[in-house]
Each structure stands twice: as structure tokens, then as C-alpha cells.
Amino acid sequence: MYYFYSCLCLSLCSLMFDMRPRSWRELPLRMADFGVLHRNELSGALSGLTRVRRFQQDDAHIFCASDQIKDEIHGCLDFLQHVYSVFGFTFKLFLSTRPDKFLGDIEVWDNAEKQLQDTLDEFGEKWVLNPGDGAFYGPKIDIQIMDALRRPHQCATIQLDFQLPQRFNLTFMTGEGDERRRPVIIHRAILGSVERMIAILTENYGGKWPFWLSPRQAMVVPVAPKYDTYAEQVRQQLHSSGFCSDSDLDHGDTLNKKVRNAQLAQYNFILVVGQKEVENKTANVRTRDNVVHGEHDIPTIIDKFKGLAQAKLLDAESQF
What we know:
It is a single chain. The protein has 10 helices and 14 strands. The protein is elongated.
């Protein structure tokens, strides 16, 4: 069975924006959605998670007036810079201009390109002109990041669209009598394809995920079998506080072997417990890089973990 799948842009235009008369007071109108998208890639172009036929995208569409474009583009660029700085990425900006085959008036294109250029200049980061590589419906800002192998990937994009409002006859009341004007649509994605971003992050961190993003945040290791019960209690406390934690209760391995296994598995923190820790209700904290932070009580460890996770530090292990 085959059926048509309406793309998110058209759905937002026809179902959301045009569902009722709009006023200038509602603009800018921002709508975001992690939508499922499909792209009929050639089989030879498919590659792991970086290029797939069905993917999720953090799609957003901003309906705004012409005089609001610069402020909205500024907001998109600031958002992009914040997100990528959290991941520890540097990025390159490209202004892609009018292609040979395009829709609309040249004057509108020139004005849109000028606004994007002015916004990029004010943003302060270096950018490169990419002539003729814009979409057929409007110019765009392309953002490339580099993975661990220094390969460029385009993830984020910010695109201006003057054509969809015209094709769907979208208008808003200006407040000056019965005058109506057409909005401009800004298509914005920060992560882009979520699958591609996960692949890039996996390669970039080389398996050593930062603490706030790690699926293996803490391993509790008892020094002997008789401390298994306390080790499991510590693990449960960490788990109840929202942290991904495990306990190594394998009686066939030595303490050093357990610690080494946890380090190789890239657990951010290894908590060792023995007789002293049981008596003091504490744990001895070390990192996957074998930095020893010493003995701390469990509430203190949990509080520090919460602070590290909230701060989204890339070097949380050294900042403990």
C-alpha cells in the first residue's frame, strides 16, 4: 500500500497558521516539532546513521513579518551557538544565495540575502559566501560541524521562505484598517537529523561521553562479597536520584579487575566501598581516568552529581 506523506512545512501552513485569521500581534509565531521525515536516498548513498531514508528532525518554523527577520535570525544563531557549545562543537557558517532555478522576484531575493548577510556580520562569527547553493524558495544559512575524523557534516540550517506564504495565500492583519500582509517563514533546525547528530557525537567523544549525557555515569564496586548489600544500596540511591548507575557484584573478579573493567567501559565515576565506607556511609570516588577524589558521603556525591549534570560540563570528572 502506498500513500502520500505531507511534509511538516505544508502541514503547518495549511493546518496551523491558516486555521483562523492572524493578527500582527501574534507575530513572530514560533512552532517546533520533532517530526519524522523521509528522503529517498539512493542505496549507494546510505551510510550508517549519518544518511538514512527515515529520520527525526528538530524542525521549527517561525512565521514573522519582514521587519522581524533580523531579530529572529539572531535568535536562531544564538540558540545554535548555545547548543553547540554545550556539545563542545565548533562550527562554520555559510550563506547560500540564489540558485539558477528559483521562485519569486529577484528584488525579494536580494533583500532577503542582504538581511541574512547583515545578521551574520552582526553575529560576529566568520562566515563564507556559498553562491548559487540556496534553496529554490529562498536563501539560507548552512552550518557545518566537524566530526572526530575532521569530516564536515551539515546538521543545522536556517532558511528563509517567501514562497510558501504566497502559495498558500497566508496573510495577517496589520492593524491598519483591513490591510493584510504576507508573513515570511523561517525554517530552522539546530540538531538537524537526530540520527546523524547521534552518530557524530558518538565518534566525536570516542565512547567517552560527558557525564550529563552518559548512559554509564557511575559504577559501584564492593571490595569483597560481604559488602555487596551496601554497594547495591548505594547504587539504588544513585538510581533513585536519576543517575545511570550499576554495581559490579561479580565474585570471580578482583577489586582491581572490577575497577579496570569499569574504566574500560567508560563509566564516568567508579565508587569503591569497603568496611570503612560501610561504617561511615560513604564511598571512595575515582574516575575513568584513574583520578582519585577520595571518600565522600552519599548525599554529597549525589549533590555533586546533580551540579555536574546541570552545568553540562565536558570535564565533569576533573571538576568533581
